[in-house]
C-alpha cells in the first residue's frame, strides 16, 4: 500500500493527526507542495470532536496542524492557502476568532472561506491546507 | 481558442469526459500538475446523470475519471488530492461507499469532503481531482 | 510581517483588490503558481458589495481579478483553475452568465462550481483563482 518509489507522489506518514475515519491519506507531498486533507477538530487523545463548538473545534484543528508542522519540520510561513468550511455564520465568527489568534504575529496564507450545509462526523468546521516545501524551479 | 504555444498552461483535449455543459476546460495541465474540473456523474453515452442516486453518480464520476487516466496514460497513484461535494449526509455515505471500492487496493489521495446546498445540473455528487504528472524539480 | 527572504512563499502586495476584511493574504505566490484568495464582489471604491445581485457581484469579482492581472502583468491564459461558490441555483445562472461574458473569446480554466449555504459578508458569489506563472521545470 506504500507509494511506489518511482511515484512523484509521496504519502507522508504522520502521528500528529488523528487516524482517518474515511479512506484518504492525511498528508500527500508532490513537490514542491504538501497537501493536507480537510481536517475536522478531532482530539487525537480521545478520537472525538473537541468541545467548545466551532471555536473549540477550530482551536483543535489548528493545534493538530501545528503539531504536524513540528513533526515534519515545516513552518506556518510555508502555508500558501487554506480553505475553511463552516456550518453556520455564527460558527464562522468563532472560527475566525481562533484563526486570528494563530495568525496574530504571522503572515496569513491565501484563504477561501464558505458556509456549507454540513460536514463529516457532524463537525462544525473543516480546514484544508496547502504548503510549499521548497523553492520551485 | 487553443492555448498559446508559449503558455505554461495546456488545455488537454479529452474524449473520456462528457462535453462541458458550462464554460470551462475539463482538464488543464500546468506542470507538474493536472487539474480536473469538478465532475458530476454524467453518463457519456447519454449525457444524463447516471441512475442510482449518490452511489450511482459517484460510480459514474469515478468511471469517467478512470477513463481519463487510461486515455492520458496517467494512474491513480498520481492522484494527490480530491475534493468531494455531496448534497446530503445520506448521499455522503453512499458516495464514500463507491469511493472506498475504487481505493480498496490503492493508496488514496489527500481529500476534502463537505456537504453543500446544491450542485450543477441537480447532481448529488461532484468531485474535483488534482494529479501530479512528473517529479517536480 | 513580510515573508522571509528565504521563504519559498511570497505574499504579493496588490492595490487592485479590496483590503481584506478577514485575516488572510489576497495573493500568494509559490512557484510556479499564484493563489488568489476567494474573492467576493466588493467594489474597491466603496468597500461594499456591488449591486445587481449575483450577476453584479460576479462582474465585480471578475473586474477586480482582471485589475489584478493587469497590475501584475499576468493574463487570463495563465489561469489554471477557478472555484466558484454561489448561494442559490438562480444566482448560479446569473454567475455563469457573467463568467461566460469574460471567457467569450478566451479559453476557460478548469473549474469547480457548487452551491453553498452562505458566504462571508452576505455575498452571493465567491470565486477562488489559481494561476501558473512560469513553465514548471
UniProtKB/TrEMBL annotation, chains A, B, C:
The keyword Cell membrane does not apply. Signal peptide: none annotated. Its EC number is 3.5.99.10. GO terms for cellular component: cytosol. InterPro entries: RutC-like_sf, YjgF/YER057c/UK114. One of its GO terms (molecular function) is 2-iminobutanoate/2-iminopropanoate deaminase. Pfam families: Ribonuc_L-PSP (PF01042). Keywords: Hydrolase. Belongs to the RutC family. This is 2-iminobutanoate/2-iminopropanoate deaminase.
Amino acid at each position: 500500500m506504500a507509494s511506489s518509489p518511482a511515484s512523484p507522489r509521496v504519502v507522508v506518514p504522520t502521528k500528529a493527526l488523528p487516524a482517518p475515519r474515511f479512506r484518504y491519506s492525511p498528508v500527500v507531498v508532490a513537490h514542491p507542495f504538501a497537501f493536507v486533507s480537510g481536517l475536522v477538530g478531532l482530539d487525537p487523545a480521545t478520537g472525538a470532536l473537541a468541545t467548545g463548538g466551532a471555536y473549540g473545534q477550530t482551536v483543535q484543528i489548528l493545534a493538530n496542524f501545528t503539531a504536524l508542522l513540528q513533526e515534519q519540520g515545516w513552518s506556518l510561513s510555508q502555508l500558501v492557502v487554506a480553505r475553511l468550511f463552516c456550518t453556520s455564520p455564527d460558527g464562522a465568527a468563532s472560527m475566525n476568532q481562533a484563526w486570528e489568534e494563530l495568525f496574530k504575529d504571522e503572515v496569513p496564507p491565501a484563504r477561501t472561506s464558505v458556509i456549507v450545509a454540513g460536514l463529516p462526523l457532524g463537525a462544525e468546521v473543516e480546514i484544508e491546507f496547502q504548503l510549499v516545501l521548497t523553492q520551485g524551479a
